[in-house]
């Protein structure tokens, strides 16, 4: 009977069939009979359908991690990278396999079944809304790679991440965490220690013999992160007003556009370090009816203050010794222009509200999720340059007009003999609207005059069905089909013409897609578990890619920063998993393939005023394939030593690009050929635990043509980071931990500098 999977596979692929799958409610737990391969914990079911590589993490994994923010809890996951530039970074985009760190719209992220993916855009500044939950509130992380389940729409092209939070135990319960962190940072003119701290707590109650439960939590976080941007001397024209010293010549840097060949790539200053304060409050209420229905409601408030008011210049006037912040200067006998230093302040208030119902109805298991996420206030004030910043002079004010999204998902399931049938529907609408004003005082926003606007909406509704068929001998065949209907509408730009607002509207667009899915899983000879999955997916453009433009320091829209004519991305995916136990070690091998037609490429550019911006274009065909090896061991070599280790290799190359054929055959930007992550955990004694983690990625290309490669600011670099942690549970209620991230102080870059060696200390209490 062990060979039945081979026979079934032969018969299946000898006869062409149409199959599919799509978006379902993330809180539906996978049936044990359908879950053959899940890497990680198996004590509780995964909360997403585990087709393709599935990873599940729990408290045992979390205890070994220096978790400053919630996304840190995933950092040792296979073939995975989190673009977190500093503690408290709002722009922590995840990269799974060949979905790179500016393709944020290729991953669906849910918290307790509610969508927190920010599909208002698709670049570095549209990450998931991680901060609706603090790290101490997380009970389980489930990560599934690829679009192999019909329950998820095309945004699952990279994968699905589901975060499950803590639930109250019977009676009253309380938890608290106090944490501090510090990071000495040295680069160019910086030699400074940045510090931060957080306070997190929760109070829960569950009736012993009653239907009600409630959990309330809060988190206050403050930190100063290192500067994100270094400013280079640009091409200068005219006469220098001063001869200066103090710039740092670095030949590793990308040469600014138009810089003379006899001019050096010289760093003269840096954007302000980032002062960030975040406050979060959560309330979750649950009710269980006598008829088996569970009703839960979630409300989250998240407030952010971010100040960049301390830009640095290392230029010194050679005659007077005074600092120089901007203007034409002479450095090493060449005339340059020093520009781009500004000041800014951001205030943002965001809300998440969600309602979930799940229970039996006429023999079916039904689940319904409804949620709304909105940015109630987003006020960004910035100066035009350094001098106006210091003098509270001219600048710009950018206001967001309640951007956000609505989502809903319905799933219905039941078993009928050998069949597990499921069907459902889901819908979402994302809307954005931003107004920019020129102001005479950037701090107070006085003297505001209208400059420009960008706005638009997108919506997707989908239908899906799937059937998991038990073929006997532990072999399960799952076939599914998904239909999506997409619409982009109400998009436009506003500009000021002779003091009046004039709007230009874009034409509405509609499109649809059918996405089949197919998965076969079961045993092979020799104690091997296997799963083969196939799928198609279509990822439609986000409202930000289509309609929302970036701005320069004067508040003008950058015409190349959006593209209302983008085509949807279409992928063909395949995954093969093989798993076997070798004594105390379980090994999982994974082979994967993905062809993406009309892949959306986010290119970066720099304006003469040092403004960084992103634009979007379609690349005709990008192909990726690769292999992963994952090892899990408990009590390996000695009792108390556990290990999780993984190694991944990928080829991700442009296969066709009519816009610029030079890109053909070149590794796609920001995707390394090699990744290796892992974590060793050792129980030294009953109250003591120690861990060692590592993260490695080889050097990727920084641009589509593979011409920009390096380990310096502006480049996507390789990284090799080691982390340590020691925990002491000195009573049953209290635990003290100390750890170091980036132990050997490896300098790495995601264009921006990544954190250097960081010390983290936390005290946890559980009552």
Account of the 3D structure:
The chain has one domain: Beta Barrel (Maltoporin, Chain A), CATH 2.40.170. 3% of the residues lie in helices and 56% in strands. The model is unreliable at 1-34 (pLDDT under 50).
Structure at a glance:
It is a multi-pass membrane protein. One of its GO terms (biological process) is siderophore transmembrane transport. This protein has 767 residues and is mostly beta strands.
The total of beta strands comes to: 44
Global mean pLDDT:
91
Class inferred from helices and paired strands: mainly beta
- Fraction in helix: under 10%
Number of helices: 4
Strand proportion, as a percent range, falls in over 45%
Q: What characteristic shape results from the CA principal axes?
A: globular
Could you tell me the CATH topology label. Maltoporin, Chain A
> What can be said about the biggest beta sheet?
24 strands, antiparallel
Assembly level: single chain
Distance between the termini: 51 Å
Family: Belongs to the TonB-dependent receptor family.
Domain TonB-dependent receptor-like beta-barrel: 314-743
GO cellular component, one term: cell outer membrane
Membrane topology: Multi-pass membrane protein
